[in-house]
Design goal:
The complex is a heterodimer.
Chain A lengths: L3 E4 L2 E5 L4 E7 L6 E7 L5 E8 L4 E4 L2 E6 L4 E6 L8 E9 L3 E4 L3 E6 L1
Parallel strand pairs in A: 2-11
Antiparallel strand pairs in A: 1-3, 3-8, 4-5, 4-9, 6-7, 7-8, 9-10, 9-11
Chain B lengths: L3 E4 L2 E4 L5 E7 L5 E8 L3 E10 L2 E4 L6 E7 L2 E6 L8 E8 L9 E2 L3 E5 L1
Parallel strand pairs in B: 2-11
Antiparallel strand pairs in B: 1-3, 3-8, 4-5, 4-9, 5-6, 7-8, 9-10, 9-11
Classes of the chains: A mainly beta, B mainly beta.
Chain lengths: 111, 114
Amino acid sequence: KQEVTQIPAALSVPEGENLVLNCSFTDSAIYNLQWFRQDPGKGLTSLLLIQSSQREQTSGRLNASLDKSSGRSTLYIAASQPGDSATYLCAVGYNFNKFYFGSGTKLNVKP
Amino acid sequence: DADVTQTPRNRITKTGKRIMLECSQTKGHDRMYWYRQDPGLGLRLIYYSFDVKDINKGEISDGYSVSRQAQAKFSLSLESAIPNQTALYFCATSDPGDSAYEQYFGPGTRLTVT
C-alpha cells in the first residue's frame, strides 16, 4: 500500500518568510505528483503538477521539486503572505489512475 | 461556471437512509473519481471510472456504489447510510490529454449521518 506523508502537520510563520513543505512517498514508481491548496470547508485548488520525468515546476512564488529516488517532493513558498494560509496537500499518482494523498500541512502566515 | 460541480453541497441524513451524491463536469474528461476526506486522514479514493463502461473500486469502496450515467456525470450512492460515513466527499476528473492526468476537483459535499 502506497503511503504519502507530509511533514510538518502544521506550521506557523510570520509574514515574509520563505518556507518549505515536505511530502514523502514509499513507492518511487510514480507517474506524477500534484500539490493542492485547500481553504477551510472548501474544495482543492491545484497549484502545481510535476510529471515523473520532471525535476521541478514553478508558478509565481511557488516552486515544487521532485526527487523520485529518495521518494520526496518539496513545495517552496517565497515571501509568504497571510493569504497563503491554508492546508497544502500533495497527491502522488501511480499507474495513470490511482492517486494517494498525504494528510496535509496546515499553514498559518501571521501578519 | 465551475468545470466540476457537485450536488448537494451539504446534506444531513439519518442512519439507514439511501442517499445519492451527484457530480457533473464540463471539461470533457473521461476519467472521474470519488474521494472522501476525514479530518487528519487526507483524501481516500472510493471509486473511479475511465469511461461510461469502466468502473473500478478504490481503497474504501465498501458501503458505496456508483453510476456513470454519461461521460459528464458520475454519481455516488450510500445504500444505507451509517454515522461513520460522515465526511467531506469530493468528485474529481482527469484526462491524459490535459496536462497529463492533472486532477480537477469539485467543491465538495459535506455529508452528516445522524
